[in-house]
Design a protein that fits this description.
With 759 residues, this protein is of the alpha+beta class. Among the domains are: 146 residues, Jelly Rolls (Sandwich); 192 residues, Jelly Rolls (Sandwich), CATH 2.60.120. Helices cover 20% and strands 27% of the residues. Strands 27, 30, 32, 33, 34, 36 and 38 form a seven-stranded antiparallel beta sheet that branches. Helix 3 links the parallel strand 16 and strand 17. Helix 7 runs parallel beside helix 8. The chain is globular. The N terminus is likely disordered.
């Protein structure tokens, strides 16, 4: 058990407390807690700053305690909970810190609640007050922005606590006249039109930043909730989306709950075979689902958001590490590693170490299959617990990040009622093939759980430099984007809902945990709606059900092959093999290295010579803890294009002779002329290229000198870098650079390159 930390409050905080409460002021001696994490220490719950907080470990049965300099008569207290609040808790008082008396008890706390509590009539003076946090309202721990004590008299006019409306019938899904619909408790079909992050304040901001906070405009959270629901209904939205303030759950509007099941390791999908994962999952599900089991307006539960089904991220980066690679790193004896060992032995007749050296089609197929095995375990466990503690409500999937492996989609559909996906579409042209595949693989209706457009023209000062790139110039274009997107989606017969991200603009100084600074909001940070956008939303939302009902788009009958190797723009000529570079002549000081600056990732190139006198390029690699690192392979081929790019038409591929630390994964990237960050308005390419980027299949080192062949016809389009609106063809007539890439979280190693040849 973690030891309790006892932390003294700084003098400045004591002075603040004295000033705050005037003639009945109290002085604080110490503030302590059962635990704290992420530098969110106990004293931050009483520092008077609205954006600092105490945060406990992610467990039930935690506490935070105040000790006064001398005993104080208390009439009540105010607790400003963060989203990670307590569902059930007690406030206790003590004269000596040993014997405790219950001053108040709450059995129906909600996320983000600002609650004022009057204590039971008592003139006893207490030196200690403790909040005993019994049950969590979320999967996170307990977190308090501020707590203040009432020492002069009880609060007046405390609003009556509301309760979530209860029901006997609940939302379902069914086909009506060959179209899928949500069905409300009264039997009426409808499309879920939702908004995410409906809250009165932005809870993810940096100190001293500008951000959305309208709590002071309303007498309490209930007053705010009624106002915002009226606003949403006026725009013809009908659902409260994920990460929204729980005070919106008390009214007759459907709402959703996201469970955010905690993992037992840093990776959110490792190790789902561990009994500890089952234990943690059951505790988390039980604490959330019990309180909503009979909630009339709960549409359903999202299990989680953008889980890393591809291994490193929630979207396909085209390279390792996959889930198979992550499980291979587990310690011997770990349940997940044993599950991997059993799979490889039964399917391929190989041990893990042996299989990790396998490349090509077999390696790719095994990684897809194992992702499906992980998904089968994950979904069967989580949905089993949800239905155990709440058999009444729908399970709305896991909000895939744009795509997911086919085997994972099938497992999701097997256990969930809906396949949900976050799908941002900058060009406003929905890829119907993608959603047809979702439906065919999952055999369940599909729901859009995030989409948005952001404009450079905005009143919040958002620069839109971080976050999903759906950037347009004007608010008029945001309106157009919403109309086009929703209209196309509603024509799909299996589509049952769409949720916009998000209610308010992000802070122009950036979101606290990742820097997102985007005009995704329906309102600006000053709470003023974007009138052009809301007018378009109101009009489109009003006709969405009709579009869906009247659509003649048929159900798909077969999967459409997507992805795979890219087409190649090559001439039907044969060029003789030539060196791509002369290793002995490389100026290591001019090698372009790129790495994740947020981690320790780095590459240090230098020259080397073997005992036999063979020259090589030596690269010492630290893959770091983020996305990794890479470098451009120097090129001596004579340039044929005005921008320095080279014409490789007539060659079949590139051959690299090198040694690399055993099992360290790597890929080869090819960037066309003009390639740059995804989402740019234009890519300055030459000679018919269009600025795209391509990757080889993932490979790995053996610790020995090996020769690796990479045919140009075996490269795939990269959807995380380069022009995403190009011809999806590797244009060999204008290749800017060829890079070696080493994904993160793979330790340190060394790559020695002896020859690079075009063949």
């Amino acid at each position: 058990m973690k030891s309790h930390k006892r932390m003294k409050r700084p003098l400045g905080i004591v002075i603040l407390a004295l000033a705050m409460f005037g003639p009945t002021a109290y002085a604080m001696k110490a503030i302590t807690a059962s635990s704290d994490i992420n530098n969110n220490r106990a004293e931050k719950a009483v520092d008077g700053k609205p954006i600092t907080r105490w945060e406990s470990e992610w467990k039930d049965d935690q506490w935070i305690q105040a000790e006064f300099e001398s005993p104080v008569v208390l009439y009540g207290m105010e607790i400003k909970w963060e989203t990670a609040s307590a569902y059930r808790y007690k406030v206790l008082g003590s004269a000596d810190g040993a014997e405790w008396k219950t001053l108040a008890g709450i059995e129906d706390g909600t996320e983000g609640e600002d609650i004022k509590i009057n204590f039971k009539k008592d003139t006893t003076a207490y030196k200690f007050v403790k909040i005993d946090c019994l049950d969590r309202a979320t999967a996170w721990g307990f977190s308090i922005w501020e707590m203040e004590f009432k020492t002069d008299k009880p609060y007046k006019d405390i609003p009556k606590r509301m309760s979530i409306p209860k029901g006997k019938t609940f939302f379902t899904i069914k086909q009506v006249k060959d179209k899928y619909w949500f069905i409300d408790p009264d039997g009426k079909p409808f499309i879920s039109k939702g908004v995410n992050v409906v809250s009165g304040r932005d809870g993810a901001v940096l100190p001293d930043s500008e951000y959305y906070n309208v709590t002071a405009k309303y007498k309490d959270t209930g007053d705010w909730a009624k106002s915002v629901i009226k606003r949403l209904k006026n725009w013809n939205f009908n659902t409260i989306g994920s990460w929204s303030d729980a005070s919106t759950f008390y009214y007759n509007m459907p709402f959703t709950v996201i469970l955010n099941i905690p993992s037992t390791a840093d990776h959110r999908l490792v190790d789902v075979f561990d009994p500890a994962f089952r234990e943690t999952a059951e505790q988390s599900v039980a604490s959330r689902c019990k309180r909503f089991m009979d909630a009339k307006y709960l549409l359903g539960y999202f299990i989680d958001n953008e889980l890393p089904w591809y291994g490193d991220w929630g979207w396909d980066t085209g390279h390792a590490p996959t889930l198979l690679d992550e499980y291979a790193k587990l310690e011997d004896g770990a349940p997940g590693k044993q599950a991997l060992a059993d799979f490889l032995k039964q399917t391929y007749g190989k041990e893990i170490a042996e299989f990790m050296r396998v490349r090509g089609t077999e390696a790719k197929e095994a990684r897809k299959q194992f992702a499906g095995i992980v998904a089968e375990e994950y979904f069967s466990v989580i949905t089993g617990y949800i239905r155990k503690y709440d058999p009444n409500h729908l399970i709305l999937g896991v909000r895939f990040a744009g795509s997911a492996p086919e085997e994972v989609l099938a497992a999701c559909g097997k256990y969930c009622d809906v396949v949900s996906v976050n799908y941002y579409c900058k060009n406003m042209k929905v890829d119907k093939r993608l959603f047809d595949n979702y439906y065919l693989l999952g055999q369940k209706p599909v729901m859009i759980t995030e989409f948005s457009y952001r404009a450079m023209e905005n009143r919040s000062g958002d620069k839109n430099s971080r976050g999903a790139d759906v950037t347009v110039k004007t608010q008029e274009e945001r309106k157009t984007g919403f109309e086009k997107y929703v209209t196309q989606m509603m024509e799909l017969p299996y589509l049952v809902g769409y949720h916009w991200f998000m209610y308010f603009d992000q802070s122009p100084q950036g979101r606290s945990f990742d820097g997102e600074n985007s005009n995704y909001g329906i309102v600006d940070i000053y709470d003023k709606e974007y009138e052009l956008l809301t007018a378009g939303m109101k009009k489109t939302n009003a006709k969405a059900d009709t579009i869906h009902r009247k659509s003649g788009v048929p159900y798909p009958d077969k999967l459409v092959k997507m992805g795979g190797y890219a087409a190649v723009n090559n001439k039907d000529i044969k060029r003789e093999s030539v060196p791509f570079c002369n290793i002995g002549d490389i100026n290591t000081g001019k090698i372009i290295v790129w790495a994740d600056s947020s981690s320790s990732a780095s590459i240090k190139p230098s020259g080397g010579q073997s005992a036999e006198g063979r020259l090589y390029l030596k690269c010492v690699i630290d893959t770091g803890g983020g996305w990794g690192c890479g470098f451009g392979v120097p090129c001596d081929v004579k340039s044929a294009n005005s921008d320095g790019s080279i014409d490789l038409q007539g060659f079949k591929g590139i051959r690299i002779t090198m040694s690399l630390t055993d099992t360290m994964p790597f890929s080869v990237f090819i960037n066309e002329s003009g390639a740059n960050d995804a989402g740019r308005d234009e890519y300055n390419s030459v000679n018919g290229a269009d600025g795209e980027s391509f990757a080889s299949d993932s490979d790995g080192g053996t610790g020995k000198i090996e020769t690796y062949d990479y045919p140009f016809e075996k490269f795939t389009f990269r959807n995380v870098y380069g022009n995403q609106g190009g011809n999806k063809t590797l244009d060999l007539q204008a290749v800017r650079n060829i890079d070696l890439y080493f994904p993160g979280n793979n330790g340190t190693g060394q790559c020695d390159i002896y020859e690079v040849t075009l063949y």
